[in-house]
Amino acid sequence: MKNLWSDKQAKAIIRHYARLGVNRDRALRVYTSQLLGNEPRLVLHGGGNTSVKTKMKDVMGKNIEVLCVKGSGWDMGDIEPQGLPAVRLNNLRELISLDKLNDEDMVNAQRANLLDSSSPNPSVETLLHAFLPHKFIDHTHSDAVLALTDQPDGDALCRKVFGKRMGYVPYILPGFDLAKKAFEIYQKDQNIEGLILLKHGIFTFGATAKEAYSRMIEQVTLAENRVEIGKKIVFVKAKLPKKVASVADVAPILRGLFGAAGRCVVMDFRTNSRVRAYVDGKDLRRYSQKSTVTPDHVIRTKPNPLIVPAPDANNLGDFAKGAKKALDAYQKSYHSYFVRQNKRVGFSKTELDLMPRIILVPGLGLFGIDGNSKSAAIVADLAETNVSVITKCESISSYQAIPENDVFDIEYWSLEQAKLGKGNAMPLDSKICVVSGGGSGIGAVTARAFAKQGCEVAVLDCNSKAVRAIADDIGALGLVCDVTSAKSVNKALDRVAAHFGGVDIVVSNAGAASQGRIGEVSDKILRQSFELNFWGHQNLASKATAIMRAQGNGGCLLFNVSKQAINPGPDFGPYGLPKAATLSLMRQYAVDYGGDAIRSNAVNADRIRSGLLSDAMIENRSKARGLSQKDYMSGNLLGKEVFAEDVAQAFVNLALAEKTTASVTTVDGGNIAAALR
Do 413 and 445 share a structural domain? Predict the structure, then answer.
């Protein structure tokens, strides 16, 4: 592993934070924490921790010794000084005299000694950092180190690799007991440069930030070199179907299992040669069902992943049945695990949900699963780490995790569960929404509105620049798509299903206003308008419905129709006729797929500043009627201009109206002539 320390960068960091009132020690602590945190082979998503012992002024202006240690909720990769809360060091050190200290009292003692009471909770391993005398202390969950510790003879193997430069700590749940044990081992040999925590990770320490960091890189490199000696071909491949189904076909089926259990989820698919070798191994059930490679993963991943059958492209029905059977067995197994462990701890715990967080699919790869794309990606990252470490373990000897009792203790440990946090739920959390014509106008505003409601959004548009801009702005998946092409639509929605796991809501919005007297307009213009303003909706709705039915949990189709569908205007037949057909299309989907719990509704909007109703068109229409632009745009019963945001809100409202289908919501400020009859 490369040592990324730079004297030049370190000095720049010191100068930068000095201007913000941060001392040299904390500045360097931020610097090397970020170096460690941005190396995924060392640290992932809140894992690991770092500290520095320094001096800071208390409320009385006195310089006192403090421990600045990583706070809960911060990732080392982007940590800032406020993510290293300062705790009165001497008061922490006094705790070592205690024989016992429960978790609640430990957390209370740490918070009571914060210099700033608004700081985040210090790490659960704060006392370990406090008891050791070194100025800078680094802790990571190095893949290579875990590959050595997670062996039946992990202790002996580590001693052979690292020698007397490191101390060796047996697995103990993080907290007071681990801190005392680590200090006890350090006391036996105060020349050691760090600690190997079996089945947990590695600590290194030093008098300077550079020394502690460099020792981490050096020791991890020793571990990596040992791992490289292992077997190159680790897993024997199992027999797979001649043609394995695509991710786009498999993901909605698996996502539907969660929906049937009352959970709406987002999925993150991962595959590469290493993942494939792992999931395709004929002994997959043996090595994948031994819990996580480092204990704190379990709060996000559950102890074990779900294994489903390899999906045969020619028999997805059997795959769906096999996946359901596998899930049923998984849930029974997890419940049995909880019952026997809860009995062990005096029936003091409440069972978590029975659903897996990782699914292994032979022939394809793996899925990380959670309530949104960000957290699903974290789960998938951890799953890939498990694959990597277990592969390395199996290349040396065999993988061995911590015992079940210890797995349960950390999975149901309140201090670990607290790390997950529970944000405010949004109305459409975990729903996956597709918006066509989402690069501009009503579509862009609608995409933004659904994102604000908690949806994962896929934006479709034929304008590549526009779709990238809005997708980047709202954190959506942006796809170039020509809705007049069924092939383009199918490709785009397959991408959505593979990326998020499926589709729940479709806002079929793409369109353009073609003009001309109906008896005089060319066939070409009329047919082009039908391709976009009717067939574009049919192409999108047809593919989306197939995905929704594969999920088996319903869905919502939303169509952007127009007053032209109801109240035709002169010279707008090429636009109004396909829109009228689209209105009927909406109702037909409601009729044909209501039994599948797929709702179909429409929004009828009028006089909205957008790509269809341009500023030039507004000016011309206003002049033709002898009105100001303001009076023209507000020429409705309410006397108020209607904006794209109002249309977007109508789409959102219809998506939330779970018992409404075949309905048209008019958004025009009131126009009796255009009202539905």
Answer: no
pLDDT band with cut points at 50, 70 and 90 for residue 636: confident
Same domain, 36 and 166: yes
Q: Domain check: are 320 and 180 in the same one? A: no
With 0-12 / 13-18 / 19 or more C-beta atoms within 10 angstroms meaning exposed / middle / buried, residue 348 is exposed
pTM of the model: 0.92
Residue 517 burial class via C-beta count within 10 angstroms: exposed 0-12, middle 13-18, buried 19 and up:
exposed
Contact 319, 245 (CB under 8 A): yes
Predicted confidence (pLDDT) at residue 393 exceeds the cutoff of 70: yes
What is the three-class DSSP state of 117? coil
Q: How far apart are CA 138 and CA 203, in angstroms?
A: 6
Q: Which range marks the domain in which residue 410 is found?
A: 247-420
**For residue 603, which of 658, 553, 644, 659 has the smallest C-alpha distance?**
644
Coil/strand/helix, residue 366: strand
Question: Angle 441-442-444 (CA atoms, 0-180°, nearest 5)?
Answer: 70
For residues 616-651, one letter each, b for 16 or more C-beta atoms within 10 angstroms of the residue's C-beta and e for the rest, the string is eeeeeebeeeeeeeeebbbbbeeeebbbbebbbbbb
User: Cα separation of 360 and 267, whole Å?
Assistant: 12
**Whether residue 414 is found in the same domain as residue 445:** no
What are the pLDDT digits (tens) for 523-577?
999 999 999 999 999 999 999 999 999 999 999 999 999 877 887 878 878 888 9
Which of the four pLDDT bands, split at 50, 70 and 90, describes residue 609?
confident
Eight-state DSSP code of residue 116: S
Q: Are 548 and 497 in contact (CB under 8 A)?
A: no
Q: State the average pLDDT over residues 201-216.
A: 97
Q: What is the CATH number of the domain that holds 280?
A: 3.40.225.10
Higher pLDDT, 189 or 675: 189
Give the containing element (helix H, strand E) for 447. helix 441-452
What is the pLDDT averaged over residues 375-385? 96
CA–CA dist 670, 397 (Å, integer): 75
Q: How far apart are CA 547 and CA 597, in angstroms?
A: 13
Here the tokens at position 117 are 């009471």
Question: Same domain for 277 and 204?
Answer: no
Structure tokens at 447: 């995409």
Residue 629 has pLDDT above 70, yes or no: yes
Q: What's the rounded Cα separation, in Å, for the pair 553 and 597?
A: 7
Q: Which two tokens stand for residue 569?
A: 């205007």
**Averaged pLDDT for residues 86-113:** 95
616 in a structural domain = no
Answer whether residue 468 is part of any domain.
yes
Token pair 């259990």: residue:
261
Other beta carbons within 10 angstroms of residue 231's beta carbon come to: 11
At 468-522, the pLDDT tens digits run 999 999 999 999 999 999 999 999 999 999 999 999 999 999 988 888 888 889 9
Which residues does residue 67 pair with via DSSP β-bridges, in sequence order? 53, 87
560, 507 contact by CB (below 8 A) = yes
Owner of token pair 């394809």:
364
Our count of domains for the chain comes to: 3
| DSSP states of 598-661 | EEEEEEEE-S--SSSS-HHHHHHHHHHTT--HHHHHT-STT-----HHHHHHHHHHHHH-TT--
Termini Cα distance of the chain: 72
